[in-house]
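Shift notes (night). Ran Glycerophosphodiester phosphodiesterase while the centrifuge was going.
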Amino acid sequence: MEIIAHRGNKRYTPENTMASFYSAMTYPIDGIELDVQFTKDGIPVVIHDDKIDRTTNGRGYVRSFSFQEIRQFDAGTWFHERFRGEKIPSLKEVFQWASDKQVSLHVELKKQKRNSTEYLTQCLKLITNLHLEDRVIISTFYFPYLKFFKERQPKIETALITKNPILRSYHYLNHIGADAIHIRNTYHATQFYKYWSMKGIPVRPYNVHKIKDALKCQRLDVQGIITNDPKQMADIFRSE
Ligand code: G3P
Ligand code: CA
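Came back to this:
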């Protein structure tokens, strides 16, 4: 079962920063998950929310800043003083750092209010320029973005993220052409894990932070778990 670090080592470091990714990579994990937004001047950057308010010392929409402007904000101090100086990374910076690491990159494309085509094009360009097609898994709640990638570069794995296990059935997944499903780990969702796996759809539940939930996922043969606590999961599942 793959261990995927959600927004880096989210429990111990400020999410979606280089500090968080470096830290996650100190454990024997298989993947890193990160979120992508788009600046005013067309640079894909790694941050979860469409605003910088929660995870930096600034305020405003990501899309209202140029890359140079957004780099002025501190993305570490909100979490702890010892992370002062962390910046919002560009997607390119994360890719360059990860290019020689043995880890898959779960790139979540957040829905953009404008410039979607440019956003997707820039992300695709970064993947192909750095030859990361085999390492990146494009994931998103928004299935037109999956379609864009399937049409332009079918070699790249795509995953539909969802909270709803009923709507996103096997036939529905087939219809939109997603390779995998990343689903919020709820009691109702677990009923579907074996079914999807048997149909050849990799299932990677997210928000698996407790050991008992991770053990249940393992019993249900999921492909991987997306967790805020990669250290704890590595201690349990990689100890032998
Ligand atoms: O990997 C899926 C998960 O990251 C989706 O939820 O809100 O943490 O981006 P969110
Ligand atoms: Ca995410």
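The first helix runs from residue 18 to 24. The first strand starts at residue 2 and ends at 6.
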